[in-house]
From TrEMBL:
Residues 1-30 form the signal peptide. Residues 35-167, 184-304, 340-461, 477-595 form the CUB domain. GO terms for cellular component: plasma membrane. This is Suppressor of lurcher protein 1. Keywords: Disulfide bond, Signal. SUPFAM superfamilies: Spermadhesin, CUB domain. It comes from Spodoptera litura (Asian cotton leafworm).
């Protein structure tokens, strides 16, 4: 691009900008007489350079027809842009008219690196406030171009300022062996001298991945070893939509191929998600079919040694599973020499019982215990309390912060997070982990002859505590209800009647006969959130659909609701429950019925407690009357 005559007629403010940027700017080239270009090819020994809109931090001028910011790196590098401030007047929602900043990074055609022309397609358009701009932009190749345009309206928007840097793209190479003839399939083997751990990325990471692509990552460990994957960053699409409705999705299979059970389905955005295979094989399948690809994913893998090896001792297990998050709780928590520290692995047994020290006798004063649970595959840890009696202060305080207590921790975003605290003498409801790991911490500073502690039944479950329907192995948590098997029944949220686990999506499929419809009667409903139950309010939700895809007839349901009914329009109905990593509720319980399409639903008669008690009294009185003749005979004969 050669400097055009119109480029010499820049406004005084633009000339000031060019003058201030001379230490990092090469001579620009114009695509056409209306465009000017500032070219960045070096940071001149610094870690980062800077760029900004004209006149920043004062409002930018109107009528900037086309100002190009061109960043050109070395062939083995990519461009990183980070906006430290962003304020472009949003005249239109789609940011394609008025004031906007267009991003080009798939530059094609003849010319020097970074050259664009009228046939170049932009990757995205930006406008609005700082919240509308991405945290960072990464080019897939060695060049990136921004096009800044302002309309005729004068406004007080200040524009943008940011930093740029050139990064060696080889640090984002996947540590597997690329499968010849495929676009993005990799093999990871434990054989020979290959490392026991490494990294894997989606195509073009950290830039956006291409659409219409499917990548497979095959892992093959040694016999008795496990494959552990930690998804450090997943950024496919923004929002909290069900993974079944996403065109871009990551599926993890607990075996060599897609016929193996699905451990996880990942979509939207999340961090620190961990999976562990049950055996030496694991498959990750990444499918991208949307028109709006995201950044993708960055993950680590580890071929974990068998549990009975010296490499998997207690300290090693803690480090591999909870890592720094566990150590951050302090030396007492990370110490494995505690007299009441216990570990429970599903390799040993799928269920068992744990008790406080000396149970059922009182626990000693100054007791500090840790109980850690390690599952595998899609297993979740479920705890059911059989007895619970901790020291309770005489004033009857219900605050658990300063009394004897039992706390439950799960792994959220790669860190330990407390999800439950129990104290006093009330029997807690069941609890369930959000993944294959859970930790309990018991602190009993007081003691008395009544404080017998607790008894807990634990189990590693794959059905999420859902005992009705037929579970599908194609999804981590999905259940089918067919009218050919039962015309009515019940279903509930995971871990019912206890609080549902975080980071969980469960789907319930109802299949009726050709002339049938599905009627659902919710008897209990407590799903954390506020209407309209969207991601902006960090709400969990339940949604319904007459189809496998989205159904606009039904909105999302969340919050605490009284009994209500939902009915399908056809013989198929889908119910989706989704929880995030924030707060939780006790979930829902519901009755389902398959009815003929012409039938009206008739609720079963409800008997209140008063009438139920009266009925019991009448029954008792009748038995007493019938027994009187026999008593009279025994007394007088």
């Amino acid at each position: 691009m050669g400097r055009s005559g119109s480029a010499m007629e820049l406004s005084a403010t633009l000339l000031v900008l060019l003058h201030l940027s001379m230490h990092v700017v090469d001579e620009g080239h114009a695509v056409n007489p209306s465009c000017s270009c500032i070219r960045y090819t070096s940071t001149y020994g610094k870690e980062r350079g800077t760029f900004s809109s004209p006149d920043y931090p004062r409002p930018y001028p109107p009528h900037i027809d086309c100002l190009l910011y061109t960043f050109v790196a070395a062939p083995h590098e990519i461009v990183e842009l980070v906006f430290t401030d962003f304020d472009i007047f949003k005249d239109h929602l789609d940011c394609t008219r008025g004031d906007y900043l267009k991003v080009y990074w798939e530059v094609q055609g003849p010319g020097p690196p970074g050259a664009i022309n009228e046939r170049s397609a932009w990757a995205r358009e930006l406008c609005g406030s700082r919240a509308d701009a991405p945290p960072a932009l990464y080019s897939p190749g060695p060049s990136l171009v921004l096009e800044f345009h302002t309309g005729a309206k004068q406004n007080n928007a200040t524009g943008f300022v940011g930093t740029y840097s050139f990064i060696d793209r080889r640090i984002f190479d996947t540590d597997g062996v690329h499968v010849p003839g495929t676009e993005c399939d990799f093999q990871f083997s434990r054989s020979g001298s290959r490392p026991t751990h490494g990294r894997l990325y989606s195509p073009r990471y950290p830039s956006i991945y291409p659409n219409n692509v499917r990548c497979s990552y095959h892992f093959h460990a040694r016999p008795k070893e496990r494959v552990k994957i930690v998804f450090e960053e997943v950024a496919l699409q923004k929002g909290d939509i069900s993974c079944l409705r996403r065109a871009d999705i990551i599926k993890v299979f607990d075996g060599r191929d897609t016929n193996s059970p699905a451990i996880a389905m990942l979509c939207n955005e999340l961090t620190g998600y961990e999976v562990l295979s049950t055996g030496p094989a694991l498959l990750i399948q990444f499918t991208a079919n949307s028109a709006t690809p995201g950044q993708g994913f960055a993950a680590t893998f580890l071929f974990q040694p068998p549990p009975d090896s010296t490499a998997a001792d207690s300290d090693r297990l803690l480090k591999l599973s909870f890592g720094k998050a566990f150590e951050s709780l302090g030396p007492e928590v990370s110490a494995t020499t505690s007299s009441c520290h216990q570990e429970f692995s599903s390799d040993g047994t799928k269920h068992g019982t744990l008790t406080s020290p000396h149970y059922p006798s009182p626990y000693p004063p100054n007791t500090h215990c840790h109980y850690e649970f390690f599952g595998r595959g899609k297993e979740r840890v479920r705890l059911i309390f059989q007895d619970f009696y901790l020291y309770k202060s005489a004033d009857g305080s219900i605050d658990c912060t300063s009394v004897d207590s039992l706390q439950a921790f799960v792994n959220v975003d790669g860190r330990l997070e407390k999800v439950e605290t129990f104290c006093g003498i009330d029997l807690p409801k069941p609890i369930m982990s959000n993944g294959p790991k859970l930790m309990l911490e018991f602190r009993g500073t007081q003691s008395s002859r009544y404080s017998r502690g607790f008894k807990i039944s634990y189990s590693f479950v794959e059905n999420f505590g859902i005992n009705t329907g037929r579970q599908l192995k194609e999804f981590p948590c999905a259940f089918v209800y067919n009218s050919s098997e039962a015309h009515n029944g019940t279903f509930a949220s995971p871990n019912s009647p206890g609080p549902y686990p975080r980071d969980t999506e469960c789907t319930y499929f109802f299949h009726g006969g050709e002339t049938e419809k599905v009627h659902l009667h919710f008897t209990n409903f407590d799903v954390e959130g506020v209407l309209p139950c969207h991601a902006v309010s960090a709400s969990d939700y339940v949604e319904f659909s007459n189809y496998m895809t989205e159904d606009n007839r039904f909105g999302r349901y969340c919050g605490q609701m009284k009994e209500f009914h939902v009915e399908s329009e056809r013989n198929f109905f889908k119910v989706t429950f989704r929880s995030n990593d924030r707060l939780d509720g006790t979930g829902f319980k519901a009755i389902y019925q398959f009815l003929e399409a012409t039938d009206e639903y008739r609720a079963p008669p409800v008997q209140d407690k008063a009438s139920h008690s009266l009925c019991i009294f009448d029954h008792f009185l009748m038995l007493l009357i019938l027994a009187i003749p026999q008593l009279h005979h025994q007394l007088y004969h």
